[in-house]
Amino acid sequence: MFARVYGCTIAGVEGKMVDVEVFLSSQLPSFDIVGLPDTAVKEARDRVRAALKNSSFRFPPQRVVVNLAPADVKKEGPQLDLALAMGILQADGKLAAPTAPWAFIGELALDGALRPVRGVLAMVLAARDAGYRNIMLPLANAEEASLVTGVHVVPATSLKEAVAVISGEQPPTAVPRRKRQQRKNEQKADFKNVKGQESAKRALEVAAAGGHNVLMIGPPGSGKTMLARCVPSILPPMTEEESLETTKIYSAAGLLVENSGLISERPFRSPHHSLTPAALCGGGRNPRPGEVSLAHNGALFLDELPEFRRETLEVLRQPLEEGFITVTRLQAAYTYPSRFMLLASMNPCPCGMLSDAEKECVCSAGQIYSYRRKISGPLLDRIDLFVEVTRLRYDEVAGTGQGEPSSAIAARVGKARSLQAARFAGHGIKCNAEMLPRHIQQFCKPDAAGRDLLRQAFSRLHLSARAYDRILKVARTIADLDGEEDIRTKHIAEAISYRQTEFF
């Protein structure tokens, strides 16, 4: 007796369809699962057996062989439990196969209840793309699944209810389709509350307008962290496509807030400096997205950059350059999207007073060298803007006036991003920071005086080819903020100024 049902698993942040083939033979009773299952899938034997018996179904007293196809793809997690149970019931003749193909997703409790699983959004998208229009899953995952159009989501609270719906004994529960929710921005940090630091604010405006990476350098208490936390308030709204991408990642990581709809606010991640390379890039025994992927379409803030372990920081090279990161394991390789804006801050020396005009630095030359060498040259080369943040004066701290609000800065950033969206339509990129060499040659052509200034800066600052390209990208963004099509000398000059620093 043979039956085939369809389930789904999660690989990285993408869903993968799985054919669950069940064969019953007249041999000594046993239950075997083949097809590269992980420990959670192997343990499904006991969960499914108990769930069937506690749902008033007989477990067949025969040899049960389940093949999970394709057999060369590793299957992870408990989301195949429901498909296994439905396949066994069909093979045993207790349940007729539905006329239309169904996809089954869900974990079974020992009493037959259906428990929610992570990554439902990605799995439902995969099922829809594979042609499955009827999807049964736990009730707790139904609202998340309803974000996907073009599918019929059928929720169930237990295995018994799932069987009743498939056999036609009980009508399916209707699920209200959720739309993208525009939640109110709860980010309280606003640039109007930042005292002074006008040059740093300008640099962060340029960075937000083009999606560029920033490193702020200054003494303790100068406002670096507060400036970074204000950046989300000036970033442009997410598009529908970006919302779906980000929500898929958080769903795969099990971090999606219940009843939240699609994520509509750009992520802002600020991990502690003690995190490991695996926590930053993703992976682990049961691979999940790391901080660089959770910051996708948003910003990643690394406070006190030299306090991070060097091997952790080196993980940033691939995502900063390519917009994704690949984690390789023994039996599989996982690719996670990681296109984010890097915000970093650091002190100029271990005591932090090297650049301070009022307090004397007590660090030795060796300590300063050791402190700075934690950040490698290749990583620094991938940063677009170096911003020196100075200590505030008394009149700036004690002043009662407010600075320019984030809403005004966000309006200028939005106009610049609109110009970039029109410019790069059909090119597969969204902002200036993502430009490839061919885009730079096409869209970043400075005038004669600008080329001469670039030539001088290239020799005097000992720039690499990557740094040269990044200056042109930043200059393109500055021109966009000015609403100008051509890159002028003043735009080149300002872009070069963001790479002039005495600390590196």
Folded structure, characterized:
The chain folds into 2 domains: 2-166, Ribosomal Protein S5, domain 2; 191-425, 3-Layer(aba) Sandwich (Rossmann fold). Helix 7 (198-210) packs across helix 20 and helix 19 runs parallel beside helix 21. Mean pLDDT is 90; it is low at 180-186. 43% of the residues are buried. The radius of gyration is 27 Å and the shape is elongated. It has helices spanning 39-42, 44-54, 81-91, 120-129, 142-145, 159-166, 198-210, 224-230, 240-252, 277-281, 291-294, 310-313, 317-322, 365-372, 377-380, 394-398, 406-423, 437-443, 448-460, 465-481, 489-497, and strands spanning 2-11, 14-25, 30-34, 63-69, 102-104, 107-108, 114-115, 134-138, 152-156, 214-217, 268-269, 282-283, 288-289, 299-302, 324-328, 333-337, 341-346, 385-388. It is α/β, with parallel strands linked by helices. The protein contains 21 helices and 18 strands. It is 36% helix and 17% strand.
CATH topology of the largest domain: Rossmann fold
- Number of β-strand runs: 18
Quote the beta fraction. Answer: 15-25%
Q: Given this structure, which CATH class of the largest domain is correct? A: Alpha Beta
Q: Averaged pLDDT, please?
A: 90
Secondary-structure map with pairings?
Blueprint: E1 2-11, E2 14-25, E3 30-34, H1 39-42, H2 44-54, E4 63-69, H3 81-91, E5 102-104, E6 107-108, E7 114-115, H4 120-129, E8 134-138, H5 142-145, E9 152-156, H6 159-166, H7 198-210, E10 214-217, H8 224-230, H9 240-252, E11 268-269, H10 277-281, E12 282-283, E13 288-289, H11 291-294, E14 299-302, H12 310-313, H13 317-322, E15 324-328, E16 333-337, E17 341-346, H14 365-372, H15 377-380, E18 385-388, H16 394-398, H17 406-423, H18 437-443, H19 448-460, H20 465-481, H21 489-497
Parallel strand pairs: 1-5, 3-4, 5-8, 8-9, 10-17, 10-18, 11-14, 14-17
Antiparallel strand pairs: 1-2, 2-4, 6-7, 12-13, 15-16
Helix pairs in contact: 2-3, 7-17, 7-20, 19-21, 20-21
